[in-house]
């Protein structure tokens, strides 16, 4: 899950936090595998909300993965949805998907988990439709209801939806307790921890938002991940990656997961007693254009500016100079390696900057140069290298002589609110896949948008219904690929969608990268959880 959907930390860990960490056992003094000592995982990802209805970001997903149960989930190393809280799920008709809930499930507060809780969980996400929430993922769902205590029926908008089972594994899928979660608003983190409406492999024992979270294994969990190998895990949040680097280098924590700089990773790979583990990820970094507020006096001029920018970027240079080749150039919103991925931006705008082509786009539309671009990026949510990345973008654009870039940055808590309020004409976002399918790099960005019914989450206004930005053809293509059981035909449609994105440029893909985690030698299981599902599972880890 984000923005991915889908965060980093806000403050250094306090002295009180240090006391709590000592109780868990730090990385350099807990060598006995059978001692019961916990693991400490460090991160710079922020948590927006523990409540699934109020978050669609990686930091929140990390917490939700540990504490909530889903109908279906991905076992370690697999991309096939398998039963978690469900006993089984299958299509009853082309437009109805039915799940039977396992008997005897309960939340940590003692309340029974039934089909009614499942239906409530999905309905409230749609009803609340929080700007930072995952309602956009449920566009395929027409309705959901519990037909009895153990059966939940989803009615879908389209027949034979090829992605819906995987949607159940995403940020929209956690099951919450209807007796404790409000139906019409997002629950605060403090209230969620107190309510103990968790049925996942862990519960939360202590919590200080974006400073410290202590997880305790849930003995009653019965699901995909199996029993936790480690009874207690502490997530320690860092304001700065350099502090995260120092603690893992000194082995004061057991694991560092998101987000160290490429230079830090290279340095730590040479440190005795540490292992750098990489895995599939498909993380996407891209520029978003607010089609309403971006520069240009007409739709034609706005498009010309977007195409000129696409012709002015040197992705390979950014990948090498900023990310030390831990990222690679992205020439589509669908990263290389996904079934159906193509490279239309390379075909349309070239692999290297072409100032003459960029000028041609602008001249043809009558755009005066230099074009003033207000470009906003976030310095903490997508890693500390974002500053270097977007300064490189600024330099490349201005090197053509066609652009003058006003580069600004804002911390994530404010950033996420402001881009949703049309405050940024051109801005950075990143994407961490919800599930391993090309559709997950397309539908969340391109689906018809209506604030009452949701749609794409970026607030780009692309395919904004009842406006000049609506795109019925794109909507039709998306519906076709989602419902086509013929693999070759579906991939051909995916190619058409990617070509259309390159022609319209509502987004400008820059880079794609892998997941990286660093653990002390005693930690096992990192390779099992850094997989294409992009779910970091504490249940896989042991020491």
TrEMBL record:
GO BP: peptide transport
InterPro entries assigned to the protein according to its UniProt record, in alphabetical order: Peptide/Ni-bd (IPR030678), SBP_5 (IPR039424), SBP_5_dom (IPR000914)
GO molecular function: peptide transmembrane transporter activity
Compartments, record wording: Cell envelope
Domain Solute-binding protein family per the UniProt entry, residue ranges: 92-451
Main location: other
Keyword line: Signal, Transport
Keyword Signal on entry: yes
Signal peptide location: 1-22
Homology family: Belongs to the bacterial solute-binding protein 5 family.
PANTHER family: PERIPLASMIC BINDING COMPONENT OF ABC TRANSPORTER (PTHR30290), PERIPLASMIC OLIGOPEPTIDE-BINDING PROTEIN-RELATED (PTHR30290:SF10)
Protein's UniProt name: Peptide ABC transporter substrate-binding protein
Originating organism: Aeromicrobium endophyticum
């Amino acid at each position: 899950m984000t923005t991915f959907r889908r965060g980093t930390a806000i403050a250094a860990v306090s002295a009180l936090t240090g006391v709590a960490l000592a109780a868990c056992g730090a990385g350099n003094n807990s060598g006995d595998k059978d001692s019961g000592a916990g693991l400490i995982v460090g991160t710079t990802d922020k948590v927006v909300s523990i409540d699934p209805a109020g978050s669609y970001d990686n930091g929140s997903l990390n917490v939700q993965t540990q504490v909530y149960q889903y109908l279906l989930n991905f076992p370690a190393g697999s991309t096939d949805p398998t039963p978690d809280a469900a006993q089984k799920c299958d299509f009853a008709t082309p437009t109805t998907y039915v799940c039977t809930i396992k008997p005897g499930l309960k939340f940590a507060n003692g309340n029974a988990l039934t089909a009614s809780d499942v239906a409530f969980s999905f309905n409230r996400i749609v009803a609340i439709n929080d700007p930072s929430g995952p309602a956009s993922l449920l566009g395929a769902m027409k309705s959901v209801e519990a037909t009895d205590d153990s059966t939940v029926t989803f009615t879908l908008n389209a027949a034979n939806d090829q992605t819906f089972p995987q949607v159940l594994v995403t940020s929209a899928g956690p099951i919450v307790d209807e007796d404790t979660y409000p139906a019409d608003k997002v629950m605060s983190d403090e209230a969620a921890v107190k309510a103990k409406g968790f049925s996942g492999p862990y519960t939360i024992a202590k919590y200080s938002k974006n400073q410290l979270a202590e997880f305790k294994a849930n003995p009653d969990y019965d699901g995909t991940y199996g029993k936790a190998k480690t009874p207690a895990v502490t997530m320690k949040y860092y304001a700065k990656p350099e502090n995260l680097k120092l603690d893992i280098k000194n082995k004061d924590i057991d694991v560092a997961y998101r987000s160290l700089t490429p230079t830090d990773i290279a340095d730590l790979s040479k440190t005795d007693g540490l292992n750098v583990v990489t895995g599939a990820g498909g993380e996407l970094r891209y520029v978003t254009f607010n089609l309403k507020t971006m520069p240009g006096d007409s739709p034609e001029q706005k498009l010309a500016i977007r195409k000129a920018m696409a012709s002015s970027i040197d992705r390979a240079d950014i990948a090498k100079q900023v990310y030390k080749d831990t990222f690679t150039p992205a020439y589509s919103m669908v990263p290389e390696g996904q079934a159906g991925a193509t490279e239309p931006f390379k075909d349309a705008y070239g692999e290297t900057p072409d100032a003459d082509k960029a000028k041609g786009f602008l001249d043809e539309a009558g755009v005066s140069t230099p074009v003033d671009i207000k470009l906003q990026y976030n310095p903490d949510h997508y890693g500390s290298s974002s500053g270097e990345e977007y300064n490189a973008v600024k330099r490349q654009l201005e090197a053509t002589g066609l652009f003058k870039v006003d580069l600004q940055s804002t911390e994530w808590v404010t950033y996420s609110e402001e881009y949703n309020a049309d405050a940024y004409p051109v801005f950075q976002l990143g994407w961490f896949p919800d599930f391993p399918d090309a559709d997950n790099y397309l539908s969340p960005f391109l689906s018809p948008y209506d604030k009452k019914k949701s749609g794409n989450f970026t607030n780009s206004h692309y395919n904004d219904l009842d406006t000049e930005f609506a795109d019925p053809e794109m909507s039709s293509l998306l519906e076709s690929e989602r419902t086509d059981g013929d693999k070759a035909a579906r991939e051909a449609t995916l190619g058409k969608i990617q070509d259309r994105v390159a022609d319209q440029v509502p987004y400008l893909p820059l880079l794609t990268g892998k997941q990286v985690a660093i653990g002390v030698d005693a930690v096992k299981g990192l390779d099992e959880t850094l997989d294409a599902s992009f779910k970091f599972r504490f249940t896989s880890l042991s020491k």
